[in-house]
Prior knowledge:
Distance between the termini: 28 Å
Mean pLDDT: 94
Low-confidence stretches: none
Shape: globular
Strand content: 25-35%
Radius of gyration: 20 Å
Amino acid sequence: MKIRELYGEEKLRSRILYEEMFPEDEEAFVDAYYRIKGACNRILVWEDQEELVSMLHLNPYRFRMRQCFAESSYIVAVATRESYRHQGLMRGLLSFALGDLYEKKQPFAFLMPAKEEIYTPFGFRNMKNQDQEKLAQASMEQLSREYDLFVWKDQVYQEQKIPAVEWETTPMMVRIVYLPGLLSQIGAKEPMELKLCISDELLPGNSGCYRWVLEETGSRLLPAGDQGEEPQLSTDAAQLGSFLFGAGSLEKLFPAAPWQLRQKLEKIRVFQKIFINEVV
């Protein structure tokens, strides 16, 4: 078996698996999904002798991330035929997809989980998503003034949108992908620096020890310099993601952190106001 990407008309080959795994979706919705999203998304599959047995879709979205725009991918339609489960196929697809998104320097990926416990081993964590019905009709100007992170609903977005109910509750999980790109929009209330060591099993390019230099409007990672100096913050990508996307208190996330470190962490401008209400 091998992982490969479907292109053009061959994306329709995945519809059989889609309908088998997601029987609750009405035919009209699936028709619209493959007509609209299928024209712009990426579909990764495991293929066993030309039979598609597992798949993952990457639907593109553009975000306003504070001072800049960022491309991201909504991971949907993750499914494996029952007879092929528990063989590591989903892990292979997620690892392949995240590695590719890292190469494309996408700062994060997100998904709406059927079950959270499926995705936590892969570094996905809940985000502080302020999913409110009244925001579905908010203008981009209003959201730009009030929110740190939200989907940019321009003409391209409208062309790629499936006609559906405008709002429904969408609990989201997020995963850091390209750490430098994400940190470029994470600033602090005052200039400061932290010695940061991070581990990321799936994306080893993020792993390492760095000087995390924070200014008011953004931050950057620099070489650690003195290798003998103990890190002030040692964490993994999942825990750092929970912190940066505003989920959980410092006491919960870093219970062993000394008060000096906690004081610094409290000054970091994490994403507190996030709004995402996409279905697919």
